[in-house]
Amino acid sequence: MTEPNTIRPRDRDAVLQALRTGVVPRTGQQHIQVGRANEVRALLTDIERVADGGSGVRFVIGDYGSGKTFFLHLVRSMALQQKLVTVHADLSPDRRLQATGGQARSLYAELMRNMSTRAKPDGGAMTNVLERFITEALNESKTSNQAVEVVIRERLDELTELTGGYDFAEVVAKYWEGHDNGNEQLKSDAVRWMRGEFTTKTDARNALGVRTIVDDSNVYDQLKLLAVFVRLAGFGGLLVCLDEMVNLYKLAHTQARNANYEQILRIVNDATQGTAIGLGFVMGGTPDFLMDPRRGLYSYSALQTRLAENAFAVDGLVDYSGPVIRLPGLTPEDLFVLLCKLRHVQASGDPEAYLMPDDGIQAYMAHCQTRIGNSYFRTPRTSIKSYLDLLAVLEQNPDRGWVDLVGTVQIAEEVNPDLEPIDGGGESDGWAESAPAASNGPRFAAALSVASTQDDDDLTAFRL
Ligand SMILES: Nc1ncnc2c1ncn2[C@@H]1O[C@H](COP(=O)(O)OP(=O)(O)O)[C@@H](O)[C@H]1O
Ligand SMILES: [Mg+2]
Fold first, then answer.
1. Residue 422: which pLDDT band, with cuts at 50, 70 and 90?
2. Which residues are 283's β-sheet partners?
3. Nearest ligand for residue 417 CA
4. What is the pLDDT of residues 273-289, one digit of tens each?
5. 55 neighbors 365 (Cβ within 8 angstroms)
6. Whose CA is nearest to atom 4 of ligand 1?
7. Strands, DSSP E only, in 119-270?
8. Which atom of ligand 1 is the closest one to the Cα of 22?
9. Lowest-confidence region among 91-105, 141-155, 250-264, 427-441
10. Among the bound ligands, the one closest to the CA of 64
């Protein structure tokens, strides 16, 4: 296996910290990614098409723990590399594509908070995008000897043809005005409008002289405008990553659910007919979200016809050209490679500093299997986490060898939160209650307490 030799300390820490607290890393995924070559290739084609002014939509479907979130983050990193702007958010009961009580605006605002560019990969990039638009316009005004205002107006004209585009263009023009006059308030009001943070039309009119705001009824239209706008600012296009789509399937009211599916239908139609410009969607969800005939996307017949999978792609035959991408769970071989990569990352890329030989990793996997059965590789989050805890202990206690310790690692089985009753109200934390293992002495307490901070939904016991 070929691992990149150098691992930046920043990537190392981001990867290890995230995985030890049970979340998927936002950066550095390339160091630990296993498998998924075809899926990555398929999404790269989408990204290139979007960067070329086209559109695309994919549903990344897999069981709990199969790697949807990981894959979405990976795709997002690839898109940033290809000079797209990305926005991403998890759906939740309070964040939906379509709503009447503010939940759609709230999804939009979350997406905008997470807006990223290659130079600003951790979110909050709206101002950078606006500044870039201004810089591009200034450059063009120099080369074409036109007044900046004229250049800006001309560029914004492209927006005014789209639904809601007139006010969108007005707000960008206000940002320029603020920029030109040194009016910071005007600039920040424009940014707030773009980020969907105005909650009343009156406030928006007073601050910016526009009559509309981003609200529940126009989220998708705003995303389409934004995609055109980021291209005017010199980026390739916009990639929208939506995770935890299962929350739509969980909506108890048929009408509310269908209103959301109707938006998804618009997205699918625009993407397949090529009517959206520079806009791609990637949505992660479970098989139920897609296929459940009563509440899934398939319950909405127009979507069922459009998303039906290729009937020939069965028995090991694959087709990555459709809108649905299936993520099979990781295999034991994948997990082995992954644990090797993690060892490599932990050692900052120096094989001399590996804390365990391959045999140790095999022994750890065998131990996981006896403790939690096959879910150790199918839903590998806890196996990965405990493994990193083990490495941390080995690192800080060089007098203890892996042979002693591997068999003592306690790992609790993960429980899929989606298997819990749907209408139970509040979201469960989704983790199995596990009996804490008896502690075999205080020796490693310090090292282990590091692992159990920050994540109170993690009841995995790791005691030595
Ligand atoms: N292709 C992959 N390469 C490396 N690690 C992966 C891969 N897919 C998943 N993982 C890891 O497996 C665990 C579960 O993945 P996750 O994306 O959270 O699953 P899901 O979102 O489908 O429930 C995470 O710790 C993640 O980092
Ligand atoms: Mg996930």
1. low
2. 59, 242
3. 1
4. 988 999 999 999 999 99
5. no
6. 33
7. 238-243
8. 25
9. 427-441
10. 1
DSSP state of 73: H
Is 323 within 8 Å of 368 (Cβ atoms)? Answer: no
- From the DSSP assignment, how many helices (H) and strands (E) are in the chain? 20, 5
Distance 24 CA to ligand 1 centre (A): 7
The rounded Å distance from CA 23 to ligand 2 centre is 9
Residue 442 confidence class, pLDDT cut points 50, 70, 90? very low
Cα 57 to Cα 54: distance, rounded to the nearest angstrom = 11
Q: Is the pTM here over 0.85, yes or no?
A: yes
Residue with tokens 């291209």: 231
> Which one, of 381, 383, 387, lies nearest residue 406 by Cα?
387
| pLDDT, tens digit, 9 for 90 and up, residues 140-193 | 999 999 999 999 999 999 999 999 999 999 999 999 999 999 999 999 999 999
Cα separation of 122 and 359, whole Å? 38
Q: How far apart are CA 338 and CA 342, in angstroms?
A: 6
Q: Which amino acid is at 439?
A: S
Ligand number nearest CA of 61 is 1
Range with the largest mean pLDDT of 19-28, 235-244, 265-274: 235-244
Please give the Cα distance from 183 to 214 (Å, whole number): 23
Provide the pLDDT confidence category of residue 258 given band limits of 50, 70 and 90: very high
CATH number of 35-329: 3.40.50.300
444 CA distance to ligand 2 middle (Å)? 31
Q: Residue 130: which region, alpha, beta or left (left: phi > 0; alpha: psi -120 to 50)?
A: alpha
Rounded mean pLDDT of the chain? 88
Q: Whose CA is nearest to atom 25 of ligand 1?
A: 381
Question: How does DSSP assign 373-424, residue by residue?
Answer: TTHHHHSTHHHHHHHHHHHHHHHH-TTS-HHHHHTT---PPP--GGGS-TTS
Q: What is the number of other CB atoms lying within 10 angstroms of the CB of residue 423?
A: 6
Distance (Å, whole) CA 80 – CA 136? 19
Residue with tokens 């000079």: 83
Best of 70, 326, 377, 378 for a ligand 1 pocket test (most atoms within 8 Å of beta carbon):
70
The answer to whether 59 touches 324, Cβ cutoff 8 Å, is yes
Establish whether residue 35 lines the binding site of ligand 1, counting it when its CB lies within 6 angstroms of any ligand atom.
yes
Q: Which residue in 254, 263, 314 sits closest to 57, CA to CA?
A: 263
Angstrom CA distances, 61 to 48, 64, 297, stand at 22, 10, 12
**CA pair distance 27, 170, nearest whole angstrom:** 36
For residue 341, the ligand 1 atom closest to its alpha carbon is 4
| Boundaries of every domain in the chain | 35-329, 332-452
